[in-house]
């Protein structure tokens, strides 16, 4: 995603969030009751499906990269990593993005950037060690996100 596109998306999110908050469509994310203290992200079924599909794409990319390395095909890593880069954000509606906590959005942008950087590095014949270091950082984001947030249906 270009810096211009990211800026436009961020502006749309802020504008939409302002409208939604002004009309009380969106409330602040709630902390889950009980033993699960992760922050709830309240999404309707369609929005949740898009978000979960994106996460499955992350997993497919990680699995594909590991398989490419295991099968000694590092030439495949760049195209596999690119599938989870910033272009994946094009499937997210600004209305959905306005419902997401800023910490979640920040981690999401960072994860997509990490996939793009891995793709660029791999295209320049990155070493196995460099690819694995990038995967470590990507999976660190995934783990942090799943430890911090959970998607829930509206009540």
Account of the 3D structure:
The chain has 155 residues and is mostly helical. It has one domain (3-152). The chain is 64% helix and 5% strand. It is built from six helices and two strands. The protein has helices spanning 3-22, 45-70, 77-82, 94-97, 102-123, 128-148; strands at 39-42, 149-152. The protein has a two-stranded parallel sheet. Helix 5 (102-123) packs antiparallel against helix 6 (128-148). The longest helix has 26 residues, at 45-70. The protein is elongated and about 50 Å long. The model is unreliable at 11-28 (pLDDT under 50).
Q: How is the topology of this model organized?
A:
Blueprint: H1 3-22, E1 39-42, H2 45-70, H3 77-82, H4 94-97, H5 102-123, H6 128-148, E2 149-152
Parallel strand pairs: 1-2
Q: Helix tally?
A: 6
Helix content bin:
55-70%
Order of helices and strands: HEHHHHHE
Mean pLDDT rating: 84
Specify the biggest β-sheet.
2 strands, parallel
Radius of gyration: 17 Å
Secondary structure tally: strands: 2
- Give the termini distance in whole angstroms: 34 Å
Form type: elongated
Low-pLDDT sequence parts: 11-28
Query: What proportion strand?
Result: 5-15%
Total number of distinct structural domains: 1
Walk across the major sheet and give the strand order. 1-2
Structural class: mainly alpha
């Amino acid at each position: 995603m270009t810096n211009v596109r990211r800026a436009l998306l961020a502006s749309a999110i802020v504008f939409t969030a302002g409208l939604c908050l002004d009309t009380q469509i969106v409330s602040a994310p709630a902390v889950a009751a009980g033993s699960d203290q992760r922050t709830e992200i309240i999404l309707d079924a369609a929005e949740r499906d898009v978000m979960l599909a994106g996460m499955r794409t992350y997993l497919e990319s990680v699995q594909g990269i590991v398989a490419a390395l295991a099968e000694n095909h590092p030439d495949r890593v760049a195209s596999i990593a690119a599938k989870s880069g910033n272009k994946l954000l094009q499937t997210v509606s600004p209305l959905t993005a306005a419902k997401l906590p800023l910490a979640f959005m920040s981690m999401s942008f960072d994860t997509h950037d990490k996939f793009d950087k891995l793709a660029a590095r791999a295209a320049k014949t990155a070493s196995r060690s460099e690819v694995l270091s990038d995967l470590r950082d990507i999976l660190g984001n995934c783990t942090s996100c799943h430890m911090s947030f959970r998607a829930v249906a509206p009540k």
